[in-house]
Amino acid sequence: MRGIALALPLLLSCAAPPRSYVEAIPSTTLRFGMAWIPAPRPFFLGKTEVTWEEYEAFCLEEAEGAVDGVTRPSPPYEPPDRGWGKGKHPAMSMRRHAAEAYCVWLAEKTGKPYRLPTEEEWAFACRPAAPLDEEAWHPGNSDFTTHEVATKSPNAFGLHDMLGNVWEYCSGDFGPGDPRPVLRGGSYGHPPSCEVRQPFLDIWSARDPNRPRSKWWVTDGPFVGFRVARSAD
Question: Which helix (H) or strand (E) segment is 170 a member of?
């Protein structure tokens, strides 16, 4: 017995780390994958950008009578998908406030602390594993429109569309003294890169007729989206 007791801490220290998993969104038929990222401080990151079918489950739930204390997006001024398709296309044209509200809703639904990735987490997870055309929808192959997620090869961590398709919000601001949200990864219309940082630009909302302008939607930002993260501890 004493030998077993002495060996137990060693066995526990050799236990397998958390693994990638599939999350089911309660009260829906929707599922999405989360990849284990072995960073110095490990975390999980969505295997794809949040899709329209996932985002609309959040937007429309209130209409079905759900009461969870999470405010839902107001109706957009123009169709936010630009007619390119919803379903498994990446959700887009939202402000970071809307992306953060989705994370709060998802955490409430699942009981897991979902959030936007930090910029450091996003950069660590951006590990291309194949030529650009095999991993990304970008200006050279996209026909300047979004495409369904996970139709390109995954990167070294099993993540799809880290480069291209839509820019992705991170939780930090663009820089000291610059409170604008920061986006990473490029899009179908912007050269993709693991290094380039893009600040949110007010001109993307210039045509919004609302005053004050919508805190949910970006009238001319059909290239901004997001994916979710959660800490491993």
Answer: strand 167-175
**Integer angstrom CA distances of residue 110 from 17, 25, 60, 105, 113:** 21, 7, 17, 9, 8
User: How high is the pLDDT of residue 62?
Assistant: 57
Report residue 89 as tokens.
């296309």
Question: Which residue numbers in the chain have pLDDT < 70?
Answer: 1-18, 62-70
Bridge partners of residue 151, in order along the sequence: none
CATH number at residue 39: 3.90.1580.10
CA angle 25, 67, 211 (to 5 degrees): 100
Overall domain count for the chain: 1
Domain residues for 149? 2-231
- State the Cα–Cα distance between residues 4 and 11, nearest whole angstrom: 10
Give the model's pLDDT for residue 3: 45
Complete DSSP assignment for 177-215 = TEEEEEEES-BTTB---SS-EEE--GGGGTT---SSPPS
Instruction: Please state, in angstroms and rounded to a whole number, the distance separating the CA atoms of residues 198 and 191.
Output: 11
pLDDT confidence of residue 114: 98
Whole-structure pTM value: 0.89
> DSSP label at 129?
-
Q: How far is CA 58 from CA 24, 74, 145, 227, in A?
A: 14, 12, 24, 14
